[in-house]
Amino acid sequence: MPLPTGEVIGIMSDNLRRRGSVFPISKRAATRWSTGLNLPRGGSTVLYTGLMVQLVPYIEVAVAAMERLGDTRLAGLTALGRRANRVVNLTRLGLHPRAATRARYDQVLVDVVGLLRTAGVDFGYLYGDELYSGALAHDLGLDEAVALHARRVIDVFRRNGVREVITVDPHTTTMLRSVYPTLVDDYDLTVRSYLEVLAAEGSGLGAPTRSLDLELAMHDSCVFARYEGVVDQPRTLLARTGVSVAEPAHTGRSTWCCGGPAEALYPAKALANAGRRVEQLRAVAPAGVTMCPLCLVNLRRAAGDTMPFQDISHYLRQAYLEPAAASLTPRTTPKAAAR
Question: Nearest CA to 237 among 326, 173, 320?
Answer without folding.
Answer: 320
